[in-house]
Specification:
The protein is an alpha+beta fold. The chain is built from eight helices and seven strands; from the N terminus they run H-H-E-E-E-E-H-H-E-H-H-E-E-H-H.
Length: 241
């Protein structure tokens, strides 16, 4: 029940999709489908997470991602990503989340697609809006040392710039932020203000989880692509060191 709690402040979609408004016939067909068809695969998307992603091929493209996830088993979760948390939100990506144990079974050629999560958790950037602090912390504790494989298929927003009105071009492999100074600070401030979140307080409250952190693959993958001064935080180190 705790995991289905609603989020804090609402985030509407930043783009208007190209196309005419739904007709009366289309709305009637939708109503009939809701009454007669099962939506079992999506009814289980009951865990809501909010975080940020840079694109691996261009770190200047940074997006806030609203994750709606289902924990399929102890080691694997699947998420649908949206550009907001309201009914007009646009589905703009997917993410699969695996435990450290499963990551270690992957061949080397596959591991390059999976980004580490420890910085997102320990920095306070990754949140579960609407959950009580204790429940959020317990949820994220189980995600320590995990990895995500994320594809964004619709560039709905980047640094507040106007997004595309349709999902255009090739999918982008997304990555994680792994040092202070990589994420556009304005994006974090905007999210925190909009959703009533104190990321710095969450960072402080999660310091006891540093002792759970192990070196992770991919922490250093993009560090040379970010401009400015970057600052490492305790608990976030690359497995290659």
């Amino acid at each position: 029940m705790l995991l289905t709690a609603c989020g804090g402040g609402n985030t509407s979609s930043r783009v208007r999709e190209n196309g005419a408004p739904a007709s009366a016939e289309t709305k009637a067909l939708e109503a009939g489908a809701r009454a007669l068809q099962s939506a079992a695969p999506v009814k289980g998307l009951d865990i809501y997470l909010d975080a940020f992603h840079p694109m691996a091929d261009d770190v200047q493209i940074q997006m806030e991602a609203h994750h709606y996830c289902r924990q399929m088993n102890e080691d694997f979760a699947q998420c649908v990503l949206f550009d907001g948390n309201t009914s007009d939100a646009k589905m703009n990506g997917i993410e699969y989340i695996i435990s450290e144990r499963v990551f270690q079974t992957l061949p080397a050629a596959e591991r390059k697609y999976w980004h580490p999560h420890n910085y997102e958790i320990l920095s306070g950037e990754l949140v579960a809006p609407g959950l009580p602090e204790a429940a959020e912390k317990a949820l994220l504790r189980k995600k320590m040392n995990s990895y995500g494989k994320t594809w964004h298929v619709w560039m709905t927003d980047s640094h507040g710039k106007a997004g595309d009105s349709l999902p255009l071009g090739e999918p982008h492999l997304a990555w994680s932020f792994n040092r202070d100074g990589e994420l556009d600070a304005a994006m974090l401030r905007d999210r925190d203000m909009r959703m009533g979140i104190d990321s710095q307080k969450k960072r402080q409250d999660r310091q006891d989880m540093v002792k759970l952190a192990k070196p992770q693959s991919g922490v250093d993958r993009l560090k040379d692509k970010f401009p400015g001064t970057l600052v490492s935080i305790p608990g976030v180190t690359d497995a290659g060191k």
